[in-house]
Amino acid sequence: MNIAFIAHDRKKDEMVNFVTAYEPVFEGHTLYSTGTTGTRIMEQTSLSINRFMSGPLGGDQQIGALVATNEMDLIIFLRDPLMAQPHEPDIIALLRLCDVQGIPVATNVATAELLVKALQRGDFAWRELVHKYKPE
């Protein structure tokens, strides 16, 4: 599966801790991330991550391009709901694309944990259903 990690500045430590806790689950999947988040994760784990630009410099949009072409399976995007983001339109566009393509996206650790537990069980039915019932 193709999995992306994105974290706002005040959520980067939380993302690193989360990915470290579930490192064995993420091994064997193709991982993507925005720039700094990916660097921080790779410094603390043995995971290999395909890094894009920083979110404000277009990294969110690069991940969005994979979503738009249905090449992304799961996104963990730890957003900071208490801090205004200068690239908010890019964030909203990414979330909209996930809704259009039926890509699960977690915006907090509680939801991320539910999705990773499903991944851990091998429950990939959400992707099969999206492909089966998606209108052309």
TrEMBL record:
* Domain MGS-like: from-to ranges: 1-136
Q: Which residues form the active site?
A: 60
Query: Which UniProt keywords are given for this protein, alphabetically ordered?
Result: Lyase
Q: Which GO terms describe its biological process?
A: methylglyoxal biosynthetic process
EC number, UniProt record: 4.2.3.3
* Class in the EC hierarchy, top level: lyase
List the molecular function annotations (GO) for this entry. methylglyoxal synthase activity
Gene Ontology annotations for the cellular component aspect, listed alphabetically: cytosol
Which Gene3D superfamilies does this chain map to?
Methylglyoxal synthase-like domain
The record's PROSITE patterns line, in alphabetical order, gives: METHYLGLYOXAL_SYNTH, MGS
Catalytic activity of the protein: dihydroxyacetone phosphate = methylglyoxal + phosphate
Which residues are listed for substrate binding in this entry?
A: 8, 12, 34-37, 54-55, 87
Q: Which Pfam families match?
A: MGS
Query: Record's InterPro entries?
Result: Methylgl_synth (IPR004363), Methylglyoxal_synth_AS (IPR018148), MGS-like_dom (IPR011607), MGS-like_dom_sf (IPR036914)
The entry assigns this protein to a family as follows:
Belongs to the methylglyoxal synthase family.
Cross-referenced NCBIfam families: MGSA, PRK05234.1
Q: What does this protein do?
A: Catalyzes the formation of methylglyoxal from dihydroxyacetone phosphate.
* UniProt-recorded name of the protein: Methylglyoxal synthase
What organism does the record attribute this protein to? Paenibacillus methanolicus
